[in-house]
Amino acid sequence: MHPINRREFLKLTGVVGSGILGAGALRPLKAIAKEELGRGPYDNGKWIPSCCHMCGGTTGIMCQVVDGRLVRIKPNNHNPVGFTNISDDFFANADKEGAVMCPKGNAGIMALYDPDRVRQPLRRTNPQKGIGIDPQWKVISWEEAYSEIVSKLKNLRDAGEAHQLLWFSEDHCFTHIQDDFCKLFGTPNYNMHSNLCDVGRKASFKILMGDERPLIDAINSKYMLIFGWNPLSATKWSHLPRIITRGVERGAKLVVVDPHLSYTASKAHQWVPLRPGTDGALALAMAHVILRDNLQDQAFIDEWVTGFTEFREYVKDKTPQWAEGITTVPAKTIEQVAREFASTKPALVDVWSGTHHTNGVYAGWAIGSLAVITGNVEKPGTLVLPDKKGNKHIEVEADEAAKVTLKQPRFDGGKDKYPYFNKSGVYAEIINRLSKGGGPYQPKMGMIVFQNLLMAVVGTKNVETALRKFEFLVVVDTMLSETAEFADIVIPGTTYLERYDLNNHWVTWPILGLRQPVVKPLFGQPAEYEFVCELGRRLGLKEGNGGDFFWTGHMSHQRIEDKTKWYEELLSKELKEGEPKITLEELKALPGATWVSKNGTKYNKHTGAIAPEKVQDAFTEGALLFSKKKDGSKDKQIGMLKADGTAVRGFMTPSGKLELYAAKHTGKKDANGKELSPLPAYEPREWQPDDKYPLYLINWKEASQTHSRTQNNAFLAEIKSTDGLRMNKKTAQRLGISQHDEVWVESPYGKVKMKIELTEGIHPEVVGTQHGWGHWALGRIAKGRGAHTGILAPTKPCALSGQSLNKEICVNVTKA
Amino acid sequence: MATPTKSETMFEEVIDQQLGRRSFLKLTALGIVSAAAATLPAEIAEAAKEAVTKRKFRYGMVIDLRRCVNCKACTIACKLENKTPPGVEYNPVIEEEIGEYPYVKRNWFPKPCFHCENPPCTNVCPVSATYKRPEDGIVVVDYKKCIGCRYCITACPYGARYFDFGENYPAQETDYGKILSPEFKGEYGLRKEGKSPDGNVRKCTFCLHLQDEKGHYSRPPACSETCMAKAIHFGDFGENSDGGCITHQDCNLKQLLVARRWIRLKEELGTEPNVYYLM
Amino acid sequence: MIKKLLWGVWLVFFGIGAVGVWQRLVYGHHFANYGSFVPWGLWVAAYIYFVGLSAGSFLLSSLIYVFNVKQLEPIGRLSLVTATITLFMALLSIWFDIGHMERFWYVFASPNFHSMMAWMIWLYTAYFILLLAELYTVFQNHSEKQQRIMKILGSIGVPLAIAFHGGVGALFGVVGARIYWHSSMFPILFLTGALTSGGALLLAIVAWFWPHKNVQHQQLVRFLAQITLGLLLFDLLLEWAEISIPLWGGMTEHTASLKLILFGPYWWVFWILHLFMGTLVPIILLLKGLKKPYVAGWGGALIAILFLTVRLNLVIPGQAVPILSGIEEAIKNHRLTTAYVPSLHEWMVLSFIVCLGILVFSLAKRKLNIFHLEAR
């Protein structure tokens, strides 16, 4: 079928291709008649709904495929992620306004058709491993790749050393099957990306609210106080720009606390620059002002907060003057913002990766406390705890052999070492233990799926040493990343446009979007889950009950040869047993291949009554209610009994309330053996500037790139092809540095050369850059642009959460 | 229904287009050209008037700078939609920093072609390859005619025109190179070295190819559709339009321009841009 | 011996130039340095430079045929030949510059009456035809009829040359988007420049290549030198006006391009190449050369050659100021910058054109009696 009819076509050519002379007018006609033959259709083909994965935001997308080629990607209006995080807004407005996509999502086509992608399995022929050492890749067959990897895995498992396999994965793709594989194989060391991202924040809010990831209801807010977060540019959830600017449009004031004038700070009514790592002090001083002036929501506090007295006592001496000395924020500004925040309702306060420093968890807790004392929790326009229900990860039971090695401690020390350990692991600890020795055992084998540890984990030299320690390393990636250069075997991965996934994140009510292959894997390679499945099959991994996990269809219970079909059944099972209760086929058939719960966003969930029969069935411990396990022992916290005896959901903290004071911290120690503070204490971050390294170095994210993985994207390289070192003009003047000067940025760990970008928009004691540049591999575009500042930092985990502390760096800057 | 023959249709449109352009002659500053204009036969002048009144749409944009967050999704969405090569950018975002620490701000705005009512760029084209479409006011370049002299680039006060140097993204060597640009409904076929639009001047077409046969848009231009903050409102300012916005169903462009303060760039040049910026 | 050496040098440059042209034909504009913010580069500057030389030589020839300036009669043929060859070089330059060389004729098939460029092209087409007619006539045997035809052709030619070269100036002048170009002075400045550079070129040729170095030759050179000097000074005056007025006014918008010329990274093009080497030194040489033809020839040559810098400083700085502040940072692409310097490739193509011009000239010199000796 031809997309446009002939008449329309002629009309078009008449307009476009006209000439005033007869000959001129006829000429294009002829030319086109010829052209027409070689012309393909431009506007037909199929539109396939899916979810983006240029970052972890998983925005809904519509992909147009013509002749098996991806042609266009457009926003998917049926998926809330690209529109809003609040259901009312979605149901009322999404159809009329339409969803959005970020620049990276729009550049997805360049990721798919990147000519530098890995096409076939590669084996290194150079046994030497190191930065700058050519692995001397040799293309091998899939059979060779599988048999070599499987034999290594088998040897490990047969020797009872399955736990010596370390697995690293991205955090939003096919994580369940990798987790399952690790379990069935017998290693407790499944790790994923989150600990590079927000496990610090997770810890803060876990302590305070018992929920790891409250989200901002920006669209309903009247005051937004953002600490160390760039939501209008680091738009991981593509609805952020819309909901925040709408909030502002409806009268909200936006105040951004950040050492760097991010794009969000630029859009704000007020930018409050401060010294890095002092956000906790600033928040405490604001709390001081609020409590001093009696601006708190006492009724809310009385009902839902614990530890208020201790907290009030603690902030008594945290005056604005005290904080001014620490943060450089004028006391007057602190007073003004604190009072405005407390007296505007509803208000929200939030923080993300600005807390990648040693005081980060407490700082996040202090910041969250501002919401708590003003009663800005779980109400429209405040911090809202998301109701996250989606597909269900069905627990697999390991077989006997695996159970033995699963009992081994995690290599990173796990929750025994980190009080707020997250299941994503502690990359920094793993790297340190690998490179410097230590740890319960020496891992032999590594499997790195779509992670670029060398660029993502700071302390590059250290990471290099660590990666060398693996006797056998497999990297699965679409690109030959810096980390892939340390692999013994590289397996070509698939992009998000070539594979499946289920996505249920980032909004406040249950939704689930499907990612599905819109084109066949370009090089005929298996999707990662099929690769894992194949490994499982070849290893003959069995479940505890003898079941053939990797062979048996999870819906049909038949043996399935085709791995894609097998995985589809697994997804169906997760969907069926999860909240949507539909099959994969049914999900595909939904508009935009997105399941959206009709129940919508619920506010004030903590006040929700618990059904009497549930209360009766519950396991009670003090005022807390728990569900029961089959054996009658206590399972998950489900609610609390209020003083008046009513049973409500409350918060999932040890007190059932919001905790300004964490009693459970008493006597507990962090990974460094230091006692935990029961209050959100401000302590100066460990690494402070000194005479030798007088400047703070920070880094940030912008809309133009995702971490260190999109720098080879040709479209994105045009909007941002590198980043210099941003420095305050006055600082530069003092140092005799001018615009675009080449400088050495030096720390005790190394030095990198960078180009100066002068600005008024950064704290004078701070220099900074967008994270992710300085590739020496990855592809022809990425290579050699900008500097990788990870070299300048030590590999260091947060002692509470295991968060990699990427932003605690001090440097000296000199003209090169 | 009596349909005009192909050649008639074409002839009419050719005349319309030429005459539509003539109507801009009044702008001229040079005697030599004015003299030429003055010698136009009366019937052509008459036809010119008619051509102007035949205008069905006046497409344009209202870009809300209070919303725009400088994500540059518009820039990339345009590349994805039109498959423009490197260096050919129909909608870049321009940014500047103002103020002094700590009272400092970065200002920015996306800049598509403004499809001016009085476009200075079309006047200069020696071969009539670029012109303002009489029916909807969209300024286009006829790649089959453009000789690539780049005079129009110098004449545009907004930097909206780009020369296609025939350069390609590395992906051109892959299947990406086998994808048709939908620009002008795919008329120019697959991108090939030395073949138009290589060697031509290129510019934003308001995603003309998204229009149906009647000139209505089936979906908004790519930049407007993808816009993260929904800042780019696209629609028809024409006298026949009720101001309804194609991007947002609930929005009225004409009303927006009444309700809010707006600017157009370099207003003093008298180009009458059809892109308004809400402040 | 020197001649052989010079031809050797010519061959080298011609060879290099031929490679450039081959690159241009095979790779299009890939190796050129202009982009979308500075869309016009060396070749456009070269075009207006050559076209100026042509118009200047032609207008000088018209002094003979229209205004009966007897002293110049000996260079009648020479000036017409020079005008033709430089026009040919100009057309070649601009031909290489356009994106679709095969479409140059569209200017006639699909014209736009509002385009100053279209007018300019038609005018120089007419001028080209006229030149050929004059050339044909001037190489006929001397007769009264010939003189009459020459007078008629010349009389048509003078307004034509003024219109067409003024038109080249107007081509820039009408561009309201580029403040630096948008000046009513441009057509006049272009004409004066044309006369100055054209006169200087003829002066150099006459001074150096005239077959008989006698008193008459000396007088001829002296006269040409005087004309050139006068034109140069007048041109300088106009230039002063063009530069000083916006600078005095001091509006950034008006002065941005001028500041680039005077104090930008290529300040030396203006101060050293144009003002010192191309103006001051030639003035001295011309004054000295009033008695020494050879020295005057150097003066003429310096003016004529270095006039390219004047043209470059007209074309480039007008574009080298960002059309909107911040536009250069918007997209990272080497075509999207106002920092333009001609690439080696561009110079190579120009070298080809110059060498070709020299070749045609020396062929004409050999085959045709361009010095018009019997006419005296």
Question: Can you describe this structure in just a few lines?
Answer:
The complex is a heterotrimer of chains A (816), B (279) and C (376). Chain A has 27 helices and 31 strands.
Ordered list of secondary-structure elements with their pairings:
The complex is a heterotrimer of chains A (816), B (279) and C (376).
Chain A: H1 6-16, H2 22-38, E1 46-51, E2 60-66, E3 69-75, H3 87-97, H4 103-106, H5 108-112, E4 122-124, E5 137-139, H6 142-158, E6 165-169, H7 175-185, E7 190-192, H8 199-209, E8 215-216, E9 223-227, H9 240-249, E10 253-257, H10 263-267, E11 270-272, H11 279-292, H12 298-304, E12 305-306, H13 308-315, H14 320-327, H15 331-343, E13 347-351, H16 360-373, E14 383-384, H17 400-406, H18 414-417, H19 427-436, E15 445-449, H20 453-456, H21 460-468, E16 472-477, E17 489-492, E18 501-503, E19 511-515, H22 528-539, H23 563-577, H24 584-589, E20 594-596, H25 612-617, E21 619-621, E22 624-628, E23 634-641, E24 647-648, E25 658-659, E26 695-700, H26 714-719, E27 725-728, H27 729-735, E28 742-747, E29 750-759, E30 766-770, E31 809-815
Parallel strand pairs in A: 6-7, 6-15, 9-10, 9-13, 10-11, 12-25, 15-16, 16-17, 26-30, 27-29
Antiparallel strand pairs in A: 1-2, 2-3, 4-5, 4-17, 8-14, 18-19, 19-20, 21-22, 22-23, 23-24, 26-31, 27-30, 28-29, 28-31
Chain B: H1 6-22, H2 31-38, H3 42-53, E1 59-64, H4 73-82, E2 93-100, E3 103-110, H5 120-124, E4 130-132, E5 139-141, H6 151-155, E6 161-163, E7 201-203, H7 222-226, E8 232-236, H8 253-259, E9 262-263, E10 275-278
Parallel strand pairs in B: 1-10
Antiparallel strand pairs in B: 1-8, 2-3, 4-5, 6-7, 9-10
Helix pairs in contact in B: 1-3
Chain C: H1 2-27, H2 42-65, H3 76-97, H4 106-109, H5 116-138, H6 144-173, H7 185-209, H8 215-249, H9 252-263, H10 267-289, H11 293-319, H12 327-330, H13 344-367
